[in-house]
Amino acid sequence: MTTSSLPFCVGLTGGIGCGKSTVADAFAHHGIDIIDADLMAREVVKPGTPGLDALIDRFGKGILNPEGALDRQALRTQIFADPKAREQLESILHPLIWTAMRAAHAEVKSPYCIMAIPLLIESGNLNRVNRILVVDCPPELQIQRAMQRDHASREHIEAVLAAQASRKQRLAAADDVLDNSGSHQDLQTKISQLHQQYLQSAALHA
């Protein structure tokens, strides 16, 4: 199945603390199918999957918990500060994740779908979606929200931000920018407007 024959797809992305999950949930309430990259990343490394077997072959059984499932903290410890190990991890997981997402895309029942991909800009896979929606807010608000949500230190959140694409890079790649610095009602109004826009785009795409 070619990309053009698949339902119209909006790639949803944004930095940590910008509110991507809130936005995805709002589109879901409009009846739109959501394909979540983080969820797919967990599915492809469940016990017994080729993905987990490949990780064990590369990183050893020390990445497993006592139940035989992936211990994500143990894996993060192994790849932390080791760019080569991180690249090897990505080379194993990314093709599996994209294959799973493409399969989910082929099963979409709504007029269009949202692919929620936190690292869409960083992955360089911009051509896998029809349109890019970036959720944006001022950096200081982003940091405060992430600290509160994750119960993390400012230093930790700033380190995560430093490892992600910059705000400038995300905005440069965006077809649409959703400002999430205002009220909840303001955000919902903007999402409703985008929903109507995407319905029109999907009709032309069909």
Automatic annotation (TrEMBL):
The keyword Oxidoreductase does not apply. Keywords: ATP-binding, Coenzyme A biosynthesis, Cytoplasm, Kinase, Nucleotide-binding, Transferase. It catalyses: 3'-dephospho-CoA + ATP = ADP + CoA + H(+). One of its GO terms (cellular component) is cytoplasm. Its EC number is 2.7.1.24. HAMAP family: Dephospho_CoA_kinase. Catalyzes the phosphorylation of the 3'-hydroxyl group of dephosphocoenzyme A to form coenzyme A. This is Dephospho-CoA kinase.
